[in-house]
Design brief:
heterodimer, A: mainly alpha, about 0% strand, B: alpha/beta, Hypothetical Protein Tm841, Chain: A,domain 3, six-stranded mixed β-sheet, globular
Chain lengths: ~210, ~350
Amino acid sequence: MITILTAQEVKTALTEIRQLMDANRDRLLDLDNDLGDGDLGLTMAKGFAAAEAEAAESEETEPGRLLIKAGMQMAKEAPSTLGTLLATGMMRGGKALDGQQGSVTEQVAALLQAFVAGILERGKTKPGNKTIVDSLHPAALAMKQTAEQGETLAEGLKKALAAAREGEIAARAMQAQHGRAAYYQEQSIGKPDGGAVVGVLIVEGLAKAWGE
Amino acid sequence: MKKFLNEPAAFVDEMVEGILAAHPEQLAAVAGALRCLVRANAPRANKVGIATGGGSGHLPLFLGYVGEGMLDGCAVGGVFQSPSADQMLQVTRTIDSGAGVLYIFGNYGGDIMNFDMAAEMAQMDDIQVEQVIAGEDVASAPKEQHEKRRGVAGIFYLYKVAGALADEGASLEEVKQIAIKAGENVRTMGVALTPCIIPEVGKPGFEIGAGEMEIGMGIHGERGIRRGPLLKADQIVDEMLPVILNDLPYESGDEVSVLINGLGATPKEELYVLNRRVSQILGERGITVFNTYVGEYATSMEMAGASVSLLRLDDELKRLLAKPASTPFFTQLQLEGANP
């Protein structure tokens, strides 16, 4: 069981997330062909591979600063809108980690909240617009609640993953407001959002890396 | 439409290679990255760096104004696509002398997100960054929602006055404030006669009928104010110019600079026909003209059409506008008639 988040945990998490992005590459490509410009699976696989490699090679021992470095590499190698938003989330999450003195559950809660807040601010969006936020925001909330109740990290991540999955399903019924998907207007209703699926995969990766 | 093209996907890089080949004494690529352009002698000691960026397809925007008396660097995007935050960061690092960097760019979602991200990353390198967003197209949103207005040809004036002030050794805050002031005093409106083609797409993304025009269309074909039969040149100016004049408003006794901008396929002759009527109306309204620029300043590939921009001048803006500049796409000697 993890009691403190170290640089090694950040590396492990990035590896788990990168593996999930690889495994889901074709599914993301298909989703993005329906509502986007068709490159989501490629940019996510490439972006997280770059972030993972950057972290693996780095000698940085502060987990927050390591996550910031990985985020900047993501910005460089995955310069799509979602890549830039995820890079923002990683940088903001890393900053939040550095200042966080509480339990490991509180640390991860702070990371996720800052991650989502960064995406909301830079993407100029809010929950309900059929984006990655619609899976990540409920996950961050669930994580925050378990941290406040003093529960374990494993319990928190389990609830966060369930909340992310529910959020992704709820997002299918929403109408897209951003990017190319917005051109489809009502036709976007009923279809899964690639960004929201990416959000689920990220939380799933964290649960795999830190949830045991 | 016939085009000079090799591989459409290589269009932007090949364009930049051609520009670098033509202007090696003025422009350089950061560490060989063709999409990250800076002045050949960057950074300039103790000078605030000014960076811009945006999609390709608008020459001389954006990279054409990198040079003496104007900009220090430019991140170059694909045709009508924002460059990445990382490109902007590379440019920022290269042009920062320690005096900080000002970003001046147009009001488009992708550019805003990426410049914002670049600023955050640059600040982690302890580079001071400020941003000014240009949005002066009166046709793109009503005055009450001016923060939604698109940036078009009028951004030229922000580059010109901010660049002139930065050259005098002004601080980052001072350069930012003069860019804001220019932005507050400039208004633009355009008219499109034909659509344009993104090379990788190969056909127009929208149509304008043979006998039609669209007043207020944006430089990527964004919807304008009204589509209708093509009118006579004077009638078009009579419709557009009052919208600009009433928006600021520009009033009798004001002094302005005029920019008549071609969108890519309109001959200069026609631009001067438009300017003839603009100058008549300004005269009738008691508005004096300090300097008129006529030519291509912000294009939209091969779109036929034009835009009119007015910058209301005060002594400070006039003095800075009058200063010399030398870039690959814009050269000006000291203008007479302004206090040096």
